[in-house]
UniProtKB/TrEMBL annotation:
SMART domains: REC, Trans_reg_C
Name of the protein: Stage 0 sporulation protein A homolog
Function according to Swiss-Prot or TrEMBL: May play the central regulatory role in sporulation. It may be an element of the effector pathway responsible for the activation of sporulation genes in response to nutritional stress. Spo0A may act in concert with spo0H (a sigma factor) to control the expression of some genes that are critical to the sporulation process.
Superkingdom in the source lineage: Bacteria
Residues where 4-aspartylphosphate is found: 52
Length: 231
């Protein structure tokens, strides 16, 4: 379920937006000032903010920078300002939409849902390119792995193993499956002993004293458990 923060000081308008969003099966939280919004954002993550430009304790244009830089939260401007210069300024600040008041609530709901759908697609695409787990950050496009902010030196085989584990996380991967997908597809033959050795070397590079990433499933194979705390 998507989560939306409505930052609007007009109580009736705020309530109307929240009511209509809830009808669309969207979880909502209301804020009537920037102070409210900051307090709420410190307590949890949201997928989107509806942001009024004029608020009692500041303006939405300034707060938009904070949303991007500090909270990494996409936002839609809600405002009575419809001058072309202000609309362009809003988009330059990174807004996903700019909705002027008064508005048709049905149209607004469709526009909000369109933004949420687009954001989900972007998140899915980013997940295909990057993966963060425990102390690790993996960039699949650049084929780089970072551990606690430091670049790891992996052999091509170690990286291929790691990527295959990450993209099949939670699944039990047999030795045969790993051999087939990591080496046989390249036309190279490696025996089970080499596989075991490479997994051991990979573990030594990525694991922490308190974190485990690759679990041995005896008699079956291996499973990516992604930074699980060691008991």
């Amino acid at each position: 379920m998507s989560k939306v923060l409505v930052i609007e000081d007009d109580e009736m308008l705020n309530a109307g937006l929240c009511y209509n969003l809830q009808k669309k099966q969207i979880e909502v939280k209301e804020a009537y000032s920037l102070a409210d919004a900051r307090r709420i954002l410190e307590q949890g993550h949201y997928d989107l903010a509806l942001l009024d430009v004029n608020l009692p304790d500041g303006d939405g244009f300034s707060f938009a920078r904070e949303l991007e830089e500090q909270y990494h939260l996409p936002f839609i401007f809600l405002t009575a300002h419809n001058l072309d210069e202000e609309v362009l300024y809003g988009f330059k600040l990174g807004a996903d939409e700019y909705i002027t008041k008064p508005f048709n609530i049905k149209i607004v709901m469709e526009r909000i849902q369109a933004v949420l759908r687009r954001l989900k697609i972007q998140d899915a695409e980013n997940e295909k390119k990057q993966y963060v787990c425990g102390s690790l950050a993996i960039d699949f496009e650049q084929r780089t792995v970072w551990k606690k902010g430091e670049l790891l030196s992996l052999t091509p085989t170690e990286y291929n193993l790691l990527e295959f584990f990450c993209k099949n996380r939670g699944q039990v991967l047999t030795k045969e499956l790993l051999l087939e997908n990591i080496w046989d597809s390249k036309g190279n033959y490696v025996n089970e002993h080499a596989l075991t050795l490479n997994i051991s070397r990979l573990r030594s590079k990525i694991e922490e004293e308190e974190e485990s990433y690759i679990k041995t499933i005896y008699g079956m194979g291996y499973q990516w458990i992604g930074g699980e705390r060691k008991k």
